[in-house]
Amino acid sequence: MISLTPHSGSTLEIFRSGGIALALIGGLLLIARPLRWGLLPLSAMGSMPLTAYSVHLVSLVVLAGPGGWIADNRVWVASAVVLLVDCTAWSALKGRGPLERVTAWAARRAGQAVPAAGPGPAARSAVR
Q: Is pTM beyond 0.70 here?
């Protein structure tokens, strides 16, 4: 109950890990504002994860072939840099990523296709 061993599930361990998480989030939020422009490419890529991941996969299949593997780290670094630059440019010029736009459009269409729920059977029987 009062053990501080990691992953013990005790109350003190839960408070300790929660406190560490809150302190870490607070510290990162404090340093994020002055580093905002340096973190802009990461923020841009984070705003379009589906597009970035899909482009990354397609580019690796084109470079290595289906089921292939690239052992040269320079390819991975170049891929990350190109993705960061492209996502930043796309975000600055167009906003939301293309696959995110398609997903949002499909979700809006699906939401419009569902009829609005009326009163339930109990409410209808009470009206009669």
A: no
